[in-house]
Amino acid sequence: MKVSFPYMGTTVVYKKLLELMGHEVIMPPKPSQKTINLGVKYSPEFACFPLKVIMGSYLEALDMGAEVIITSGGDGPCRAGFYEQVHRRILEEEGYNAEFLVFNSMFKDFQQFKKNVFKLKGNNSWLKLVNTLKLVYSMTKKLDKLEKRVQITRAYEVKRGDTTKVWEEIQMLFDKAKNQQEINCAYQRGNELIDKIKRVEVPEEKKIRIGIVGEIYVVMEASINMKMEELLGNLGAEVERSQYLSQWIEYNTLPDFMNFTHEVSILKKGEPYIPISIGGHAKQTLGHIVDYSERGFDGVIHLMPFGCLPELVSQSIIPKITEELGIPVLTLSIDEQTGTANSLTRVEAFMDLIRGKRGKKIS
Ligand code: SF4
């Protein structure tokens, strides 16, 4: 079957999984202004921004010949759980006839999960499916490790853009890998490429570390968050995101009683501020801010899609955390109207504030 999926972060991983299972993959184009315009045109005006961008991505993929769309679902009091129904209805009204495979946590609806897995498996053996999943997980883990190195190295690169080029090259290497041995080689080569990047020496006490938190789609997809990681890296900050694909997989595939993943500890840290589930990643956002503060990060950028209720709630609690823990947080609301120049000025001013704070500490 001709399958596609929403473009988010290191898409090479989703592509690899589907290709290895023998499906024809229609790669959705990286979200661009055209994608956003398309999504905005066909989505309800009050919908949250990720719904609109994903709508645009689906329209582009379907025009390229996709028949089936694979996506994740959502539960709790947040729109994510309705994305599939909303997207499907809009697409039907526009004359598209796409089949949706929505993967929710298997612990929420096992029957539906089983049905989707059968569809994904097709005529392949169960052994092939298990081996492919293991392979793709290993690839995700390795890519995340390399990406974390990239996010640190970028802050000290001598020639601006070198690290980003290396990261693109690494993703291409993984895209070509077809078995565990090739993935290991790509990982080794990736580390070598990062080691070769020329960087300036910065004394430990002058290094600045910034965390990026917020709703998963805007945190992970650089093309709609003004390339925040690159922007901060170019301003001399080491960056760490609150969300990485391997962590998401680990948290969502383990049952509660044996789930001791990083995400669980983050949720505990967010619990005192939001004791109930309000959907999205609001609790994680606050938990991560606490975590970054405990780990000595200098500041946090909070990315919030316009129209996102969970992140609006977390935004209203952030001043309390800043007051309690002393960690500066800059919230940026992202939507189709977001002006890059305006946000850039705010991020630069935020970095100046952090440098000033750091300078005072050192003196
Ligand atoms: S978390 Fe926010 S942006 Fe994401 S689906 Fe829910 S309401 Fe929309």
Kindly list the characteristics that best describe this protein.
alpha/beta, Rossmann fold, 363 residues, four-stranded parallel beta sheet, binds iron/sulfur cluster, 15 helices
What do these coordinates show?
The chain has 363 residues and is of the alpha/beta class. It has 3 domains: 2-124, Rossmann fold, CATH 3.40.50; 125-201; 202-363, Rossmann fold. It has 15 helices and 8 strands. Strands 2-1-3-4 form a 4-stranded parallel beta sheet, with helices on both faces. Strands 6-5-7-8 form a 4-stranded parallel beta sheet, sandwiched between helices. Helix 6 packs antiparallel against helix 7 (162-176). The longest helix has 28 residues, at 126-153. It is globular.
Short summary:
The protein is 55% helix and 11% strand.
- Structure summary, number of beta strands: 8
Q: What portion of the residues fall into strands of 2 or more residues?
A: 5-15%
Rounded mean pLDDT score: 92
- CATH class label of the largest domain: Alpha Beta
Radius of gyration: 21 Å
Structural topology:
Layout: E1 2-4, H1 12-20, E2 24-25, H2 33-42, H3 49-63, E3 68-72, H4 83-93, E4 99-103, H5 110-121, H6 126-153, H7 162-176, H8 180-196, E5 208-214, H9 216-220, H10 228-234, E6 237-241, H11 245-253, H12 262-270, H13 282-294, E7 299-305, H14 309-325, E8 329-334, H15 340-362
Parallel strand pairs: 1-2, 1-3, 3-4, 5-6, 5-7, 7-8
This protein binds iron/sulfur cluster.
Iron/sulfur cluster binds next to α14.
